[in-house]
Structures are given as structure tokens and as C-alpha cells.
Amino acid sequence: MDLRVTDLACARGGVPVLEGVSFALSGGHALFLRGPNGIGKTTLLRTLAGLQPALAGEISVPPDSMAYAAHADGLKATLSVAENLRFWARVFGTRGIGHALERFNLVDLADRQAQNLSAGQKRRLGLARLLVTGRPIWVLDEPTVSLDVDSVHLFGQAVREHLEEGGSALIATHIDLGFLAEELELTPFKAAPRDLEDFDEAFA
Amino acid sequence: MIAILIRDMALAIRAGGGFGLGLAFFLIVTVLVPFGVGPESGVLREIAPGILWVGALLACLLSLDRIFALDYEDGSLDLLATAPVPLEGVVVMKAVAHWVTTGLPLVLAAPVLGVLLNLESGGFTWLVVSLLLGTPALSMIGAFGAALTVGLKRGGLLLSLLVLPLYVPTLIFGALAVTRGAQGMATATPLLMLAGITFACLALLPFAAAAAIRVNLR
Helix (H, G, I), strand (E, B), or coil: what is residue B7? Predict the structure, then answer.
């Protein structure tokens, strides 16, 4: 269950943002992506998740092994916490949402509609989705936004448990999550500004 | 994939889900037309098939932009695209959910509203049959249009402009089947054409729509 990235270049809105990114991530390990706003952390993660094509380079990853969590949690406001989670469990073909609810302290909120949750509670629900996907490689884009200190701790624990079970995590974050892991600073990979020759504006 | 169908139907029925929007619009059109056209039953009888089909078509159009726009806004479309379900399957399920919550109620309500428009008694069966055959195509074409415009702010106008020309064949053959049925003529040809359009849409458009979503998510 290795994620291997070699010489990857990716673009946002037709403008190359990163080039020459190489790293490897094996089971049981986590990797933090660091870098200032706008350096291309989200773009890199979206490229890895397969949502946009890479400009150059190679991504080698076992099929159906990545769980992607973006800035938006993908929650439906009129569904309850349990219904939201159960939907994703069914889509990913896994069973049981009890563990995920417990892990992120959502048991008491299970029957509440997602529109009545606070921002932090919504985020916790969005992160609980990772557990029901049952996938080994977590690709997380600033997972701790709007979480309080206790919830960050809760999340750190969930990631550590996931690593102990042989999973891995690639996390773009600005803060300290309470455990040590390798870090990858993205600033040196910043692409030189240039125009793409075959940039097709209508399909950017 | 069934989970997507169930979720979309649950969302449509809950508060703010838009269920009943198309039905209410259909009702309003068919109730207002007799007032506008006047009480001569002959005129109404003649235009009833056309009005019923145009009403159903516009009612379908109303809720199209919700098919993918809401999922795009809250991020679930990204997550669905990375989930172990083919995007083509997601498109089909969303089109089916749209049909069940919009098209099917129109089919069921049409005979009742046909009475208001003084539809010939022979036409009722064909009205239901033609709508049953034709409305799935409306939902599928609509899902394709919604996939093309997903990610555009206020894409509703563009969506209508894209989709309306594609709706024309369905409208022509659907209304023709009802007109011919009401006059006691054979309806096999328009109904076969209608079924052909629907099946062609169901067979081809999921792939086109999924490709459009992939491009729009980039």
C-alpha cells in the first residue's frame, strides 16, 4: 500500500504551481505537507486524488486505496449525522458506522440534522467519513480547520490508530497535530511562472 | 449505487428539496391555460395534448439545475468522484432519482389535469403512455445538461438554453402520440420514436455526462 510520486507537476486554472515534486509514503507512516497559502497544497492533493490530471510526472498508487477529504465536507444539511455517514459507508461498501461515531465523539449527535451542527461538529463528521471508507491511504486537506483543541487531539488519535493498523496519511496542515511525522516543505517545488502552450481556456 | 438513489430521493422529499416544485408548476400551467384561451371547448380540446406536453417539459426543466449543482457546492461531487462507484453510474442514479421525484408525479397527475383541458376521452391512455415513455429522456438529457453546466455560478439559464433544443424531438413525438390517440388514429409510430429517443439517451448520455463532470471538476 505505497504511494509513490515521482517528478510530479500540477497546475491550477491553467497556471503551473508545482513541479518536480517527488516523495514516497508507505504503510504506517504519515507525511505533512507544509507551505504558505497558495503554494499548491490543495492542487497537489486533488491531483493525487485523481480529480485533475497531472502536467507531468508519475503517481503510483494501488487502485481504490485513497480516501480524500477536501475543505468541503460533502454533508447534506437535511440528513442526520448517522444518515450522512451511513450513505458514505454504503457507497464505499463498508458496514457499521458505530466505530466512526464513537471515534469522533458524535454518538450523542447521531440523530441531529447536519444543518444544526456547529462548524467544528460538521468537520468532525466530515473526518468520521474517512473511517467508514475503509481505505488505507488518507489524503487530507487541512483537516483541523474549525476544530477545537480537544477535537484536534481526537483527530490526532484517530490518525495514529490508523497508522498503527498499517494505513498511511498525507496531510496538508499548518498546525501541530500532536504526533511526529516526516514533513515535506513545498516551497522549493514552486513552478517557474510561464504560459502553457496548449492551454485550452474553455476546459481549464 | 442504490445508496445514491435512496439519498437523492430522501433529500428531494425533505424540506427544501424541491419535490413538488415541478408538479405545482404543471398544475399552474394547465389551470391557467383555459383562462387565457377562453372557454370554447373545441379550441381547448385541440390544443390539450400540446399544452400538457409543453407543461410537463417545462416542469421537468425547473428542477434540473439541482441535479449536480448542490452536490458540487457542498463538495460531495468531489467525494463521489473519488468513491468506488463509476461516475456514469452516479449520473444514471441521479437521473433516475430526478425522474422518480419529478417525472413520475407528472405522469400520474397528467390524466387529472387533462380533464381541465377537455382532452378527448380516447387520449388519456396515450397521454399516460407517451409521458411514461418520454419523461425518462427528459430527465436523462437534463442530467447531461446539468453535468455540462456544473460549477458555473447561476448556470440555470445556460442549462435551459442547452437542454431545450434537445427536448424538441421528445416533445414533437410525445404530443403527436397524444393527438393521434385522441383522434382515434394509430399511435405506434410516434410512440416507437419516443421510446427510441429515450433508450438512446439512456444508453449514450451517462457517458457524455460523466465525461463533462470530470472536465468540470478539474
Answer: helix
HEC readout, A91-117: HCCCCCCHHHHHHCCCHHHCCCEHHHC
pTM score of the predicted model: 0.88
Distance from CA of A129 to the nearest CA of B (A): 10
In this complex, the residue of B11, B73, B75 whose CB is nearest that of residue A78 is B11
Q: Is B10 on the interface with A (CB under 8 A)?
A: yes
What is the tens place of the pLDDT at every residue in B15-59? 766 778 889 999 999 999 989 988 787 888 889 999 999 999 999
What are the chain B neighbours of A64 within 8 Å (beta carbons)? 84
CB of A176 closer than 8 Å to CB of A199: no
Question: Are A72 and B75 in contact (CB < 8 Å)?
Answer: yes
**Cβ contact, residue pair B75, A78, below 8 Å:** no
For the record, the C-alpha cell of B122 comes out as 380516447
The interface pTM score, or ipTM, of the predicted complex is 0.84
What pLDDT, in 10s, does the model give residues B123-138?
899 999 999 999 999 9
B39: exposed, middle or buried (Cβ count in 10 Å: 0-12, 13-18, 19+): exposed
- Interchain contact A49–B (C-beta under 8 A): yes
Nearest to A125 by CA among A86, A179, A165, A178: A86
